[in-house]
Amino acid sequence: MITEKNIRKIPKYIIELIKQKDKNKKQDGNTRFYKYFTKYNNELCEVTVAVRNYYKKWFCKQVIVHGIHSDKCYLQDIMRVMSYYKVGWYREGISRYPKYQDYDWGWQYDNYFNMTEPEIVNKDYILTLPEYKYSAIDKYDYCNTLKYLRFYEKYPQAELLVKIGLSNLATSKQILQKCAKDKSFCKWIYKNQEELKKHNCYISSIIRAYNKNCSIKEIYDYDRFNLEFSREGNFTRLKAMLKENEKETFLKYIVKQKTNGYSYIDYLNACEYLGLDMNEEKHRYPHNFKKWHDIRIDQYHTQKAIEDEKARKELYNKFKNVADKYLSLERLLVKDDYVCLIAKSPAQLIFEGEQLNHCVGRMGYDQKFIREETLIFFIRNRLEPNTPFVTLEYSLKNHKVLQCYAYGDTRPAEQVLEFVNKTWLPYANRKIKKLAV
Questions:
Q1: Residue 374 phi/psi, 5° resolution?
Q2: Distance in angstroms between the alpha carbons of the first and the last residue of the chain
């Protein structure tokens, strides 16, 4: 077991490696962190190094040391405040007076001060140690390296998971215990590795898929929809429709038909508009949902389209007035990869729905729009602003995104969701506040 007396200075070659890595980072006076591995008292240790620039000088020092077999970690000149870390630089002459984070080596329990973000500068060093020569640590995709090695020591099967690209499972005690006891489970994991890479399943879902010998995707889709369905405020319309103990049947039906709750709501609204009895099995659970969904939506659309010219003109005028009112919520900045455009007419909704194969132009979204209940926006690639790409529905009451779908009601790419939730949504909410003044 290591103590603070075992801690040595940072080797010169490690300092040079850190300097090389740090050249590529923004050096604006803020503290950066890196990690390296070494041995103290014959124990593999993970050392966290703090780096900072001050008046064109570059400083680095050890602030955290974790030992692989130690239940304590050792700290110097660092404090954790909520989820942030504060480093004291009094010893280096950066601070005029010592602060509360400036202190000599002390200890804390190992599960504290376990940073996962810093880049490791000498990961290959671990492979030079005989006990970790076959650990496949060079293929491990995450930063919690010490955690993985601790599992590897107890469960060598972790190496197989890493080698086949399932690093996310290599630190799951439940998965590793089952691999150690059940060779058939190991074979099943190997056989289904591609599916497991595609779907970030819960551990319990993976075990259930193995025990039931069913599709991983089916279990994944069921669990994901069950979680979404169970959240308060989601699918209130559907929950009111379901009879006692019918939830399980409904969830399995949605997954089997490869659809989602929003499409079923559109189908339900269309059927009720057409006067169909939804208590009948053939209407409630059609054998081919997509086929009958499209038929009922088209029938609904046809009936809705039979309107006199005066009413149509009034609808378009009301729609335009609302679009003009909230035009400032559009985002068209050159620095963004995507743009966000507000729908400006019911015809645009219909075109969007036809091009992306969803119901935005056929299920009363135009009426919700003119009542200012929700707004419809089109997310487009900045270089192709006229090509339908992703559609989102925004709640004016709750100031949040209700739906955001790409072609065929599929989930957009993560880059698109990041733009919607982290760039456009805060921007739109700021604009809404100004409109309310």
A1: -140, 160
A2: 63
Q: What is the pTM of this model?
A: 0.59
Asked whether the beta carbons of 2 and 45 are under 8 A apart, the reply is yes
What Cα–Cα distance (Å) separates residue 135 from each residue in 115, 149, 346, 381? 22, 8, 59, 43
234: helix, strand or coil: coil
Q: Is 19 exposed, middle or buried (0-12, 13-18, 19+ CB in 10 A)?
A: middle
Q: Would you state the structure tokens that stand for residue 56, as one six-digit string?
A: 């064109």
Check residue 357 and give left, alpha or beta (phi > 0: left; psi -120 to 50: alpha). left
Strand 119-120 relative to strand 32-40: parallel, antiparallel, unpaired?
Answer: parallel
pLDDT tens for residues 163-204?
Answer: 999 999 999 999 999 999 999 999 999 999 999 988 878 898
Q: 298 by DSSP, 3-state: which? A: helix
Count the neighbouring beta carbons within 10 Å of the beta carbon of residue 355: 14
Taking only the tens place, the pLDDT of each residue in 236-255 is 889 999 998 999 999 999 99
pLDDT at 309: 66
90-102 burial, b at 16+ Cβ within 10 Å, e below that, comes to eeeebeeeeeebb
* 73: helix, strand or coil: strand
- What DSSP designation does 423 have? I
Task: Considering only CA atoms, give the Rg of the chain.
Answer: 29
SS3 377: strand
Helix (H) or strand (E) holding 241: helix 236-241
In terms of Cβ atoms closer than 10 Å to its own Cβ (0-12, 13-18, 19+), residue 196 is: buried
Q: Which tens digit of pLDDT belongs to each residue from 201-234?
A: 889 889 999 998 888 888 888 888 888 898 878 8
What was the pLDDT predicted at 436? 77
Q: What is the pLDDT of residue 88?
A: 93
Beta bridge partners of 109: 72
What are the boundaries of each domain within the chain? 4-120, 139-213, 231-305, 311-436
* Beta-strand pair 400-405/32-40: unpaired
- In one-letter notation, the amino acid at residue 167 is S
Mean per-residue pLDDT over the chain, rounded: 91
Place of tokens 């966000």: 340
Beta bridge partner(s), residue 51? 32, 60
Give the amino acid at 229: F
Residue 262 to residues 52, 100, 229, 293, 402: CA-CA distances in angstroms? 50, 53, 11, 12, 10
d(CA 399, CA 389): 22
